[in-house]
Design a protein that fits this description.
- With 344 residues, this protein is of the alpha/beta class.
- The chain has two domains: 2-111 and 296-333, ATPase, nucleotide binding domain (Nucleotidyltransferase, domain 5, 2-Layer Sandwich); 119-295, Nucleotidyltransferase, domain 5 (2-Layer Sandwich), CATH 3.30.420.
- It contains eleven helices and twelve strands.
- It has helices at residues 41-63, 79-96, 105-117, 153-164, 171-178, 198-208, 213-216, 231-257, 272-285, 294-297, 301-313; strands at residues 2-7, 12-19, 24-31, 69-75, 100-104, 123-127, 132-138, 141-147, 190-191, 194-195, 261-265, 288-290.
- A hairpin with a 4-residue loop joins strand 6 (123-127) and strand 7 (132-138).
- The longest helix is centred in the C-terminal third of the chain and has 27 residues, at 231-257.
- The protein binds adenosine-5'-triphosphate (ATP).
- The site of adenosine-5'-triphosphate (ATP) has 26 residues, from helix 4 and helix 5.
- The site of adenosine-5'-triphosphate has 26 residues, from helix 4 and helix 5.
Amino acid sequence: MRVLGVEGTAWCASAAVHDTETDETFIESDAYEPESGGIHPREAAEHMGDAVPRVIETALARADGDIDVVAFSKGPGLGPCLRVAGTAARALAGTLDVPLVGVNHMVAHLEIGRHESGFDSPVCLNASGANAHLLGFHDGRYRVLGETMDTGVGNAIDKFTRHLGWTHPGGPKVEEAAKDGEYVDLPYVVKGMDFSFSGLMSAAKDAVDDVSASEASGGPSAHRSDDGTPVEDVCFSLQEHVFAMLTEVSERALSLTGSDELVLGGGVGQNARLREMLAAMCEQRGAEFYAPEPRFLRDNAGMIAVLGAKMAAAGDTIAIADSAIDPDFRPDEVPVTWRANESV
Ligand code: ATP
């Protein structure tokens, strides 16, 4: 089976072709990069309007027009972006006269790790831009075991870097700056299985506020003023706190579910320090850890096509009339139809 996946939840216009015979996945993506500030929904949707037809055309050419199913991100995400990508997917399924599959973007972040690792029933840490949660499978659904009580983890980091005047996305710049940093105390907020980033980010902003704007706008090479905490130290400590919080809750999720498999999902998963902490924690408790390659961690249509193929094989397709996008589509709303008849 060949599945064409379409992704357009926020910043990444992407199309992919997944071939279930060869297990190969071709991905073509086109990222929206705001000139300043964070992601602006209208601008991001305009980008989708320009880029989605282009990436689909490239994916279709790669597949030589031979497509059996179209799968698309139904949500969660930014409404104006989801509408553009959803309309393109619907039109394509209609034109090619093939079934349509509506995929939950967060479940796709999990399933790509499960698919690639061959793990049976892992706990998943989704560390993405707009989200941060732990998912575990129970009674036919992925349940949210713990989650952020305020912003997503990537968005929290991006808000901190916007404060410094650094361009979007901030995560890779914080990772770079952290290499030269030393530890300073910041708030650490874990409550049971949930966690919070807002107080930590405010404290991080306060800590660097003595850094002059002109110095800070230079990005990771910025230097501190005489009175402030060095930007590098705050970046280092921000990572240590945020990733330790995520690692603590991941360990608790493994312990509570009895699972000995952890997979990582989401764009923040590209961070080497986060992967290092999770791998060390898993090693200490005899669990296995898997982080997909970066092209499958950040937003991408490959994970949509891979899960779309599993759903289509289980007969989990939708009529065009039922294919409305859902900006607030939670992973625990999805009946997991595809695990009953698969070996992985
Ligand atoms: P969601 O999947 O929840 O809709 P999203 O669409 O914002 O989120 P992702 O592609 O999963 O997108 O993640 C993007 C986020 O990843 C951004 O916030 C970015 O700063 C962060 N990020 C990218 N690379 C790194 C890195 N090396 N370290 C930390 N964060 C990173």
